[in-house]
Amino acid sequence: MKDQPSPIPLVILDVQDAIDRPNWDGKNNPGYVAVIQRLLDLWRSNDWPVLHVKHDERTPTSSYYVHGPWNAIKEVVAPIKGEAVIIKHENCAFIGTELDATLKGMKAKQLVLTGVVIHNSMDATVRAGKALGYSIILPSDATTAVPVVGANGKTWDAKTVYDLTLAILGDEYADVMSSDEVIAQFT
User: Which of 116, 163, 164, 167 is the most buried (most CB within 10 A)?
Assistant: First the structure.
């Protein structure tokens, strides 16, 4: 272990039962939840801060609908006593939430962001976080993508969406690395 444990919070974004609904099929990195669990175990074993961001969608047809049967945080990464749950209603975890205030209250200038999906809520959160002055570590194997269909009907497979989004975010907005690299950095 390094002399000083990391006070950097681990943020788990939108990892709810909803992500296993059929409209989210075709994920390129189906092992992402196990990677998040591994990071979560490290953070918990060191008593480092963990923040859960839960999407409570107001649209009844959404798989993330606030009153829907799939809205719960996945049991395998569910919060334990002392871990904050921040509720969001938009794609970005900083818009209309307590995330920024919570991070500022912790005096956090950096965070490790995990969750779903890289080209939607993760992307929006990374970009907003960077604009707010945060340094964001993005473990590439602790997220996933799904296929994207454009307005013209063209489909991009999940791996292409994932690779391109990580390349864009890693170029300017986040420090993209593997979970092994994150763990090595903090242990």
Answer: 116
